[in-house]
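Reopening this ticket.

The earlier resolution said the output was attached, but the attachment link was broken on my side. Pasting everything inline this time so it's all in one place.
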Amino acid sequence: MDDRWIVPGSTRTRPPGEFVSVADPNERVTVTVRVRSKHASPPLPGHLSREEFASAYGAGEGDLERVDAFANDYGLRVVERDAARRTVRLEGTVAQMSEAFGVSLGTYALGKAAFRGRTGTISLPSSLTNVVEGVFGLDTRPQARPRSRIAAHADTSYTPPQVATLYDFPSGVDGTGETIAIVELGGGYSASDFSAYCAQLGIPEPSVAVVSVDGATNAPGADPDSDTEVMLDVEVAGTIAHGAKIVVYFTPNTDQGFIDAVTTAIHDATYAPSVISISWGDAESNWTAAAMTSLDQACAAAAAMGVTVCVASGDAGSSDGVSGGEPHVDFPASSPHALGCGGTTLKAAGTAIASETAWSDSGGGVSDVFALPSWQATAHVPAPPNPAGGRGVPDVCADADPNSGYSVRVDGQSIVVGGTSAVAPLWAALIALMSQQLGSTVGFINPKLYALNGYPGSPGPLHDITSGSNGAYDAGEGWDPVTGLGSPDGARLEAALR
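Inline output:
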């Protein structure tokens, strides 16, 4: 063995579930290798074209050639090479991958899921020191969970356009000229269900395209729980911004799939999304540091190109589903380059809001990983559990309680669904409407929203939610770790941004 270099942040804990066997040495494996940027990160926010970003901040040709040479040395095949996404996809057998990356791979079972897993670090030849920032795909454990919640007995329900009316979304625009990307780690999109739903609401059916990432396919009916997530996302975004193009990126539920789907959407020159909606995530403690870095860098690339990334903040309160009683936040909502979207309970009186309080299961808190961004410096974010952290989550909120949820159509059935999953596509639709009205993409909106916190006039562009709790944190005046800055008054927010 030649001298080896440990890839920073590559440590994996033992996979969940039951160990079944050592992985078949002849099994074919495809991994994604993330390569460093040729230059330091761009200033934010920005409006670089995709071509300008790739030229200035993509991977350098010399670094890509080093990865090619490494692959050749270990008998791996280069499947794809993308300088803009800074990725090289390599294929080989388990035996070849184990030798090339210094890992031992096993197979595991967790419920109905079977996957490949590893423990410990990844190593590479010293010739790749600091060239490679992450290697994904050796371990295929399920990485994220959908943030949707089906109502057992909804007290109240709304269609997405009714919610948009309650939040006074801009009128006279429909998202024409904008593209909303939706990232899905499972489930399927049913065109017939969507057509029937739009017809039921009397809304023109928007164009919906499907993109396959890493071999994932659009498979409605195979996984009903994930179908609920997919249809909720498409129906919320598509019926509010029905003039926008909707593009759904299906990918496997692994860290590799998640990263590849987000980078594919951001750098997609064909559809050129102006806003991205993500309703999947997991607690920061369940990610590798390398995976979080890669996804955060992808969101930063989006911000540099004027693309807004809206992410659900989670549906398990301040613990984010982690045992032990300590607060945790969801990732990628905790990325400082994403718009974290929390949840409320919304009550209406006709076409006006009667009351709005924090939803008790809204994810929120303080990151253990990402430092306090400069634009949150005056938001009075609580001290982080980990000194390295400090980024407060969420940034904004909207209706998410299943008991005041969204009436949607899934697998031929009409159901009521809530969860912060609904908030990400709701804000994505609002971003699309505002971008059309403003005549340019809203882009990285976080600094602008926090600067508007003291915007004159009453009511302001955001409804400050001051009552309710998610466990460890209470809603209150100004920003809070349950509802962020508040829910939108769409027309006033567009005017304030203008």
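Reporter confirms the inline version is readable. The chain has two domains: 4-136, 145-497. Residues 1 and 19 are 28 Å apart (CA to CA).
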